[in-house]
């Protein structure tokens, strides 16, 4: 008898039942919406493989994953640069290349982040994880800067010590120990990417960085940003990358730069690895004819280490691929074919024991 009572009551009170269902629905809606909120927070942190697996679990997660993929392919820079740098692929189904973004060089450390959010519709322009590892740590606070605080920032904003034309091998800029501020005209490489670029897929070379507007000769294009490694660590990674390359399609972006000091008796060696953490420069391919970019080591006053920067070595047309020479040495037995297509192509990519 008692067990039947509720059903009698329900049949007499249809509205009450309706309200109970509404309450359930409200509860369901609330838990569904917090599920989506969580998914939208968590999914942008996933690697492409994790995202693909998650998207198989239900329609809603499939939809969220799809919109994350679209956002990722619309801007390789994860909004860290002033302009979006999209991926364009008419060759295969890979929508984007996966790596962590840093707009400036960072010291390599075991504390480097393993993950970075990418593809969230509420991305902020703040480099959320770069700051603790970023430019601050590479600064050497001390004297030696200019004292032109009174001139910079007013009038045309040009610093009287401007001397960067971008086509010399080593140049100096104002920096942390100068009296001028971030608007100073002698800091043109310190404000990130300011030319329109895109990353286009090529059947033979993989991803290629291309101009998306005319870039006049001498214009700063971008810095080569990545993890700064010790030489021992660079050698270790080089070996690891060679092994990975043997196993299939893998591109490394470890660049070794040697600067002969004025005495010619010593050489400064910079090992910059943009393979796992880097910026758009990691997509610049090699050309045996030297390409259309010149590399310049830029020193800024008060900074511990120079930065490797790319400038247009001639007027670059919209759509043209941006390239430079990786070097002239081809010594190693594990060589890769070069597809630069220039008339002076050696047939193999430069390689040397590091
Ligand atoms: C710094 S990455 C450049 C971006 C690379 N294409 C990608 O898809 O990520 C260097 C790698 O790109 C490829 N690459 C660069 N220049 C090339 C060229 N001229 N011909 C063939 N492959 C090239 C090689 O696999 C090389 O190890």
Automatic annotation (TrEMBL):
GO MF terms held by the record: metal ion binding; methyltransferase activity
Membrane-crossing residue ranges in chain numbering: none
In terms of InterPro entries, this protein maps to: H3K9_Histone-Lys_N-MTase, Post-SET_dom, SET_dom, SET_dom_sf
Q: Which GO terms describe its biological process?
A: methylation
Show the segment(s) annotated as Disordered: 1-30
PANTHER family, alphabetized: HISTONE-LYSINE N-METHYLTRANSFERASE SET-23 (PTHR46223:SF3), HISTONE-LYSINE N-METHYLTRANSFERASE SUV39H (PTHR46223)
Q: Which residues form the Post-SET domain?
A: 334-350
Q: Which domain of life is it from?
A: Eukaryota
Cellular localisation:
Chromosome
List the keywords (alphabetical).
Chromosome, Metal-binding, Methyltransferase, S-adenosyl-L-methionine, Transferase, Zinc
List, for all copies, the residue spans of the domain called SET.
195-327
Indicate, by first and last residue, each region the UniProt record lists as having compositional bias (Basic and acidic residues). 9-28
Q: Which organism is it from?
A: Ficus carica (Common fig)
In Swiss-Prot or TrEMBL terms, this protein is called Histone-lysine N-methyltransferase SUVR3
The UniProt entry's GO CC annotations, sorted and at most eight, read: chromosome
């Amino acid at each position: 008898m008692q067990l039947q009572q509720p059903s009698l009551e329900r049949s007499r009170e249809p509205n009450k039942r309706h309200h109970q269902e509404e309450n359930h629905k409200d509860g369901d809606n609330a838990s569904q919406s917090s599920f989506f909120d969580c998914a939208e927070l968590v999914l942008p942190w996933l690697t492409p493989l994790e995202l693909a697996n998650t998207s198989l679990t239900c329609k809603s997660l499939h939809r969220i994953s799809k919109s994350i993929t679209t956002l990722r392919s619309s801007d390789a820079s994860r909004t860290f640069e002033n302009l979006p740098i999209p991926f364009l692929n008419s060759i295969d189904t890979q929508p984007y290349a996966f790596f962590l973004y840093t707009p400036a060089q960072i010291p390599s450390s075991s504390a480097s982040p393993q993950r970075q959010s990418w593809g969230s519709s509420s991305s902020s322009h703040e480099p959320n994880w770069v700051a603790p590892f970023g430019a601050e740590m590479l600064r050497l606070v001390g004297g030696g800067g200019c004292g032109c605080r009174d001139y910079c920032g007013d009038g045309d904003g040009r610093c009287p010590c401007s001397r960067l034309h971008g086509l010399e091998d080593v140049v100096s800029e104002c920096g942390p120990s100068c009296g001028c501020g971030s608007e100073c005209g002698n800091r043109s490489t310190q404000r990130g990417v300011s030319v329109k670029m895109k990353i286009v897929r090529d059947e033979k070379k993989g991803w290629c960085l291309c101009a998306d507007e005319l870039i006049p000769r001498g214009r700063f294009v971008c810095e080569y940003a990545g993890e700064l490694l010790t030489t021992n660590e660079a050698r270790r990674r080089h070996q690891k990358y060679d092994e990975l390359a043997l196993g299939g399609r893998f591109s490394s972006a470890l660049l070794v730069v040697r600067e002969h000091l004025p005495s010619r008796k010593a050489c400064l060696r910079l090992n910059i690895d943009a393979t796992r953490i880097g910026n758009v420069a990691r997509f610049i391919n090699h050309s045996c004819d030297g390409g259309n970019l010149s590399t310049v080591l830029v020193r800024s006053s008060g900074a511990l280490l120079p930065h490797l920067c790319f400038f247009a070595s001639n007027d670059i047309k919209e759509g043209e691929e941006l390239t430079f020479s990786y070097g002239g040495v081809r010594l190693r037995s594990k060589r890769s074919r070069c597809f630069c297509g220039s008339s002076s192509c050696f047939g193999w990519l430069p390689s040397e024991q590091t």
